[in-house]
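Lest this sound abstract, we think one record worth quoting, the chain in one-letter code, the fold tokenised, each line plainly labelled:

>
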Amino acid sequence: MKPVKIGLCGLGTVSSGTFNVVARNQRDINARAGCDIIITHVGARRDNPACDLSGVQVSRDIFDVARNPEVDILVELIGGTTVAKELVLEAISNGKHVVTANKALIAEHGNEIFAKAKAAGVTVAFEAAVAGGIPIIKAIREGLAANRIEWLAGIINGTGNFILTEMRDKGRAFDDVLKEAQALGYAEADPTFDVEGIDAAHKLVILASIAFGMPLQFDKVFTEGITKISAEDVAYAQELGYRIKHLGIAKREGDSVELRVHPTLIPQKRLIANVDGVMNAVLVKGDAVGPTLYYGAGAGAEPTASAVIADIVDLARTLTADPEHRVPHLGFQPGELSSPTVRDIREIETAYFVRMSALDKPGVLSTITQILSEAGVSIEALIQKEQPENIDTAPIILLTNRAVEQHLLNALEKIQALPTVVGEVTHIRVESLS
């Protein structure tokens, strides 16, 4: 076969990792692809001293790469959603296959991009957009192809997982750990995307699209961050036999799906509860295979480059295949999820961890439990801590049985209004993941 020529756009962390891994593992990559894979054109505003660009065409205008008739596959690694979208659409209009690690681009504009790719007869591959070096998209799309995916749950943001791990292991406050995460380079100067769950929501909607054969609906994902999680919440969860993780969860529920990102209590005995630090993991439940767990580095230059290059090799092998079958949802057959609805978070049913501070007086606890009972929320476990005599409030920690979220919210609104309850009432969802 003739060589497959690659145009690489960007020379940042992942781009330079991709360039160097291709150079270092050229022989193995070519053998697996069944042809020579060569990076012939790089588009970047400036050079990267970590990359030897001798013998490679370099353009300061990245759109030159999209218009180069010699380039077979354009690799978009510039980030963002504005210029990146224009670049990808330009490459598609010029008949090029595209590989990207850009989760925001796919989550927010994937429907349009996939439609353009189908019309042009090209493929858009995006394994690196979710969970870095973990080949989770290929696992769901190919390895679990025989299964009806029932649900998936993932730790898909390393920054948030690092923060929660440090809070649990060392009893540190959220703000303190966040500063360290920024100093270590795990979190950006503006950490909003990571700590408020937006990054995880981008990734979750991509996984749901592959798992359930549905269009991308980023605007329908319920998203809640970890900024309100306290060291006390982490400690009390531990005392109850749980760990708090920031999860992305997608579930089939009849003719609808749940798409939600939020802090979640998980039983300590679950493998995914023991995924710590900046590592990622995705748990997928198929009807035939049962639960399967995928674990690894969710970010970083070479782990993400591993996924980028896997897509390049995949494309090199299948350049003659029908691209319609390489686009997630556009080839689905009419059926139960052809026009799915995404359930409102208030309709979902799960168990809950509830923490509040109340005046240490007789009858307070019975009033709270009565309100919960009247709302149809039953209590599974309760912790009430003794306080020193000079402190007139006490923390109350409840673990409920499964209940509809709206019922819990109705009860918490009444509890919050009690004159005996001091400060904000916290609730965190609990998942058994069994």
